Amino acid sequence: FTLLLISVSLYSFGAAPTTASSNLWFGAIDGGYFNLGWTPGNGARRIMVCKAGSMPGFVPQNGIDYDANTTFGLGQQVAPGEFIVYDHFSTSFFLVGLNPATQYFFKVYEYNGSGSTTEYLTSQFLSGSQSTSASPTLQTSNAMFTNVTTNSLTVNWTNGNGFRRLIVVREGSPVTSNPV
User: Fold this and answer.
1) What angle do CA 19, 24, 25 make, to 5 degrees?
2) Tens digits of per-residue pLDDT, 22-45?
3) Which of 73, 122, 128 lies closest to 105, judged by CA?
4) Is 92 helix (H, G, I), strand (E, B) or coil?
């Protein structure tokens, strides 16, 4: 009498989420980065695909994990110019490595599972876009130094059209280099 055992493996996908993320927002917008966040849907995690200049056409496939990187262009390229910039469970991050005065477009997909059991919600997704800041074209001017004492002074100026200012000081002689 011979007993033959046959083992069958069935792949079981995680249940797909049913609610997409919403309310995409952007903050700390600069020429090379910005912060972005959203209200999560009901997936355990989410991925974000980003493309400069137009909306990404990429749609994730069940059973596949994608490699993300929050530096634009270093995550997995899933279509020409389309990169995975986020794969996590939290709801905000800084995207870096961006070009000034460029519009970036995003799609956020909810998912459950991992590896071969990954199940994406693709019938609904969050999408949006944001432009980075352009380089300033008008320099700060009219610097005035008042209330000068032995260890302090007050500096006032007329703002240029940049969002922020950087003051460079050198003791004993003029500043001889420009910031990079």
Assistant:
1) 155
2) 999 999 888 899 999 999 999 999
3) 128
4) strand
pLDDT for the residue numbered 64: 95
Q: What is the average pLDDT value for the chain, to the nearest integer?
A: 89
What are the Cα distances from residue 132, in Å, to 27, 75, 98, 104, 151? 11, 19, 8, 8, 39
- Tell me how far apart the alpha carbons of residues 171 and 28 are, in angstroms, rounded to a whole number: 32
In this prediction, residue 167 carries a pLDDT of 84
Tokens linked to 169? 């000081």
**Cα dihedral 12, 13, 18, 21 sign:** positive
Closest C-alpha to 98, from 126, 129, 67, 127: 129
Helix (H, G, I), strand (E, B) or coil at 37: strand
Q: What is the DSSP letter of 115?
A: G
Please give the Cα distance from 111 to 149 (Å, whole number). Answer: 61
Q: Is the Cβ–Cβ distance between 108 and 90 less than 8 Å?
A: no
